[in-house]
Structure prediction request, 402 residues.
Amino acid sequence: MCLTLIVLFYCSLSFLEIQELCYNRNNNNYGKEGSDVEFDPILNGLEDIYGKMCNEQRLNRKDGLQLLQTTNVLGLGYLANERRHALTGDQVFFNNNAHINYSNVCKVRCGLCAFGKDLGDKGSYTMSIEEVVAKAVQFAAQGVTEIHIVGGIHPELPFSYYLDMIRKIKERAPQVSLKAFTAAEYDFFAQMEKVSIVEILTTFKDAGLSFIPGGGAENFSPRVREIICPGKLSGKRWLEIHRSAHQMGIPTNANMLYGLIETDEELIDHLLALRGLQDETQGFYALIPTAFHPQNTKFEEVPQASALRTLKVIAVARLILDNFRYIKAYWVSTSPQVAQMALTFGANDLDGVVREEKIYHTAGATSPQMQSEQQLIQMIHELGLEAVERDTYYHVLKTIRP
Ligand code: SF4
Prediction:
């Protein structure tokens, strides 16, 4: 109920009113006779940060922590919403995408993961290349424009399995963008083939790779990784691989896991590391904050992140990542209801239709298996915003106005 009121409040603020606030802030008009102080209380405790935003000063680590720990949630959302609007106006993006998880067999077995299984375990599976290609062709026939392909770190599959998969999908469904394999998988391929990461990425780019998803980033803190995924590549290596991809002209996304054991400082440091790399390369498209789902993991006792924590994390990400254009509200991880609210806390992308997601659902996500295009449009229109179907590179395919 309380969150509904928050959403309604933001929707009642027009862009002109927001600009007027900035004007008043810049001209120190608050409290002066005749000045419009109507919305002043919303900034309570966040005036200095708002002042920095109005003066186009970059927010720092201390600001990030202050925002994450503020009890003025309404003010935080207001600032993030203003920033979102300044970047992409009334547009909220989604795409017609599908997931293929080719295998859940994984030799790394991170504590945070409910998806990975040992080879031969009950419930373990590995799709043949033909099965993967047939599924991709079926998705393409349904109008899917992007296929997201990730799996575990399989102990036995040969390198040719992965490469042939990409080549064959590209042959049979050339119109579809392939967003394939996380940095953890590319790191594994480079080790398997004993070649550099640049060589591996070049091979996949030539085979038809379009884009690299943001998975494997979790939280870059060595302390956090040692506890939740000690066998996975380091945060430093993740950043190196994404740097290489950007330098080769392969765009990527970045994930951020929250709601597990990370401190507020570690969460902000993760964002700052991404902002630093983006300053260098401009190769990131979107940040995807993903809430930890404890069911069937080694951390089942950890309570799931609240809706409020999700909204705060998304808003802080929007404000700290001043060089990222898109922040996703990934409805699979947060629930469609919270994702919709996040569109007023700085998010401007709902991800997509997401046919056949397995990773979050294995960890107990109660969100539906997919959202129809019509459901996504309705979620956006209820906020008075424009639904924009995009391709992988954020080219506008169609705009549906409320
Ligand atoms: S998160 Fe990835 S690397 Fe870790 S166990 Fe799961 S599938 Fe394997």
In short: The first strand starts at residue 91 and ends at 95. The chain has two domains: 2-88, 91-400.
